[in-house]
From TrEMBL:
Record protein name field: Xanthine dehydrogenase
Coiled coil, from the record: none
UniProt cross-references to SUPFAM superfamilies, sorted A to Z: CO dehydrogenase flavoprotein C-terminal domain-like, FAD-binding/transporter-associated domain-like
GO molecular function: FAD binding; oxidoreductase activity
Every FAD-binding PCMH-type domain range: 1-176
Pfam families found in the cross-reference section: CO_deh_flav_C, FAD_binding_5
Originating species: Salipaludibacillus keqinensis
Record keywords, A-Z: FAD, Flavoprotein, Oxidoreductase
Length: 296
């Protein structure tokens, strides 16, 4: 049994896994460390005696890249990629601008220069998660034997028992939407612009056929505060293949408020957060369809 306190720096996934297995609950993985440091300083999480740094593991540090064949491409992001690197990356700005916008809205420059996308995900309440949900992102993990994929939605339902190493994030680039107008939005509401937990965060993607006023391929997600972000499939059903109208907006507002179940906290009531989430999504739909299709 290893007893001396230490920061370990393995140079491959297998060694990192072996270390974590030997040290068990006496260790934790660290990359940027911004979220962990916040918890340590606030006294909400005890600092582990052993830290396993992943800064020398090449798979976790993989550069953002576009991989696969035409029509089946995906953007691959190493889990140790900093939020600042995400913001300035040309591939992400072209293929996943909604994720770039999410990263721009996290904390301030000093945190974004050090904090990583992997850490934001592993917090389970990170402001990048709603954007990743609507992008149908998959997470690649190393479980000690092999690399396995899991959708971010599936992981969020079972995230209490994380022992695997998050290696990378994979975002498909969907080419099946045709020539219709594609939209993406991300909005974060907090008590001030930065360095404050969000009250409500919403994200959405989809297509809008301007000539017909019809929505399709819609994905919606909501999170914020200490609530694990969720997708809104029932709300999506209210929108997909339906024509833009005042009735549609009303139905969406009512459905969001039924499906989103935040909690009261010191910054806002659950009822207020539900109302904000509904209003944010409806305002985005109005922005997309209102100028092209008069409300009756």
């Amino acid at each position: 049994m290893i007893t001396n306190e230490k920061v370990w720096r393995p140079d491959n996934l297998h060694d990192a896994w072996i270390l974590s297995s030997k040290l068990s609950d006496q260790c934790c993985f660290v990359s940027g460390g911004t979220w962990l440091r916040t918890q340590w300083e606030a006294g909400t999480k005890e600092m582990a005696p052993h830290l396993i740094s992943l800064d020398k593991v090449p798979e976790v540090k993989e550069d953002i890249s576009l991989k696969g064949q035409l029509g089946q491409e995906e953007v691959v992001i190493g889990a140790s990629t900093t939020l600042a690197e995400m913001i300035t990356n040309p591939t992400l700005n072209e293929k996943a601008p909604v994720l770039v916008k999410a990263c721009k809205n996290i904390a301030g420059p000093s945190i974004r220069n050090q904090g990583t996308i992997g850490g934001n995900i592993l917090s389970c309440v990170g402001d990048a998660i709603p954007a990743l949900i609507v992008l149908n992102a998959k997470l690649m993990w190393f479980n000690g034997d092999e690399l396995v994929y899991q959708s971010i939605e599936e992981w969020l339902l079972n995230q209490d028992e994380v022992r695997d190493i998050l290696v990378s994030i994979h975002i498909p680039t969907d080419k099946s939407k045709g020539e219709h107008y594609e939209f993406a939005f991300y909005t974060k509401v907090g008590r001030r612009e930065s360095f404050i937990p969000s009250l409500v965060t919403v994200a959405g993607t989809g297509c809008y056929r301007k000539g017909e006023g019809i929505f399709s391929h819609v994905s919606l997600s909501v999170g914020g505060g200490n609530v694990v972000p969720i997708r809104l499939p029932n709300t999506e059903v209210k929108i997909i293949n339906n024509e833009y109208s005042s009735e549609l907006l009303y139905n969406v507002l009512r459905q969001v408020q039924q499906d989103y179940k935040p909690i009261d906290d010191a910054f806002g009531s659950a009822a207020y957060k539900r109302k904000v989430a509904g209003n944010l999504i409806v305002s985005e739909l109005y922005r997309i369809g209102g100028s092209n299709h008069a409300l009756e």
